[in-house]
Every structure is written in C-alpha cells, then in structure tokens.
Amino acid sequence: MGTVSSRFDISEDTQREEGLAAARQALQAQRCIVLPTDTVYGIGADAFSAQGVAMLLAAKGRARTMPPPVLISQIGTMDGLAIDVPPAARALAEAFWPGALTLILQAQPSLTWDLGETKGTVGLRVPDDADALELLGHTGPLAVSSANRTGQPAATTCDEAEAQLGASVDVYLDGGQRGLLGEAQPSTIVDATGEHLFVVRQGAISLQALREVVPEVLGLGESAPSQDA
C-alpha cells in the first residue's frame, strides 16, 4: 500500500462499507487516511503506531514539537488515556462532547505511544460526526490533525485535502463539504493540565459558551487574577 491512493465516496451506500474497511486496513498497516469530521477534514493514523504518527507529521510537514490530538469515540475512553482529569474539564467534556472541543490533559504514563514531544500531555476530542464515530468505534483512538500542509488553509472538502497531501495518504474518505458554508472552523482547544483552565486556540465553541459551564475558564491570552487582591 502507499503507492496509489484510494478514494471512496462514503455518502453513497455502495462505497461506504468498502471505504471504511479500506481505511481500517490502512490504519492497521500503520499508514495514514483522510476522514471527514464535524469541523474540517482530518489526516489520521493509529494513535498507538509510532510509524503511523511519524508519517502523519511528515505528510503535513510538521515537527514532533507539534503533536497531533487524539480522537476518541466516547467520553468514557478519556479516563483510559488521561489521568488527574479536573472536575472542570470533565464538566466541559460532558457539555460539549461529541463536539468541537479539544481538551489537553495529562496523559496516562503507562501508555505505549509516541505522538511527538507532548511533555506528558494529550489532546482529546470526541467528534460530532457519524462517519468519524463509526470508524473510531472500529479502530480505537486515532491521532488526527487537520488534513493540510502546515501553514496552508484547513481542508473543508476531500478535494482540498487530496490536493495538499496527495500520495502520502493511502485512503481518502469523501463525506462531502465540511465547515460552515465552506469556512474552516477548527475545534476550540482548552488546556486543562494546570491550576487554571485556559483557551489556547479559539475555534467553533465560543468562550462565552465555555463559561456557561465553567465560569473560570480563561480566554485566549488572559491571565489568572492575582490572589493578592
């Protein structure tokens, strides 16, 4: 595999099962796939395959200092992959998963994976997309990053993803247009590894929406209030 990419229109019943099966085979072979999510198209690899993750980073032209987040199929998987999950982070997960929220958490130290230079953390998300969730239900956790070359716009169609990533991806799953009116809206990323939860990337979920669940979440660039006051 790898010399010629395969593409499947998974919005058609005749190609859906064949496409999902081909994607599973590619992932098992430690190769990369492109899949639709609820935000933009993603390039994915088995989260527990060091070779697959290395190929993902290479396809994007991305260094190990920018490790990919991990997509999971259900909130219950979070405790298998992360430790010391703060109650506030759990509240956000329960409110916004499945959805466009990525939580950075302390990774389970016993896991045998290599996502890059993570400093002991992992970004987790449950996507709100039936195709992605069905695939994740079969494969387990996938390392998934936006399906584009680093520095280029995120792909909202399979055509855009294929134009940027080409033969570095074995299987392309075409699920139609993603993003609101073609506008790429990535997930909002919240770091929950420290004393305060804070937004590190503003995306599809607004700070106001986050604060309706956890009022003390810090916005992009905000610092915690002084304790001396």
TrEMBL record:
Keyword set includes Nucleotidyltransferase: yes
Domain of life of the native organism: Bacteria
Gene3D superfamilies: DHBP synthase (3.90.870.10)
ATP-binding found in the keyword field: yes
Pfam families (alphabetical): Sua5_yciO_yrdC
Keyword field: ATP-binding, Cytoplasm, Nucleotide-binding, Nucleotidyltransferase, Transferase, tRNA processing
InterPro entries the UniProt entry points to: DHBP_synth_RibB-like_a/b_dom, Sua5-like_dom, TC-AMP_synthase_SUA5
Subcellular location: Cytoplasm
Domain YrdC-like, first and last residues per copy: 17-205
Cellular compartments per GO CC: cytoplasm
Assigned EC number: 2.7.7.87
Catalytic activity, reaction form: L-threonine + hydrogencarbonate + ATP = L-threonylcarbamoyladenylate + diphosphate + H2O
GO biological process, alphabetically ordered: regulation of translational fidelity; tRNA processing
Entry GO MF terms: ATP binding; double-stranded RNA binding; L-threonylcarbamoyladenylate synthase; tRNA binding
Protein family membership: Belongs to the SUA5 family.
Protein name: L-threonylcarbamoyladenylate synthase
Protein source organism: Glutamicibacter creatinolyticus
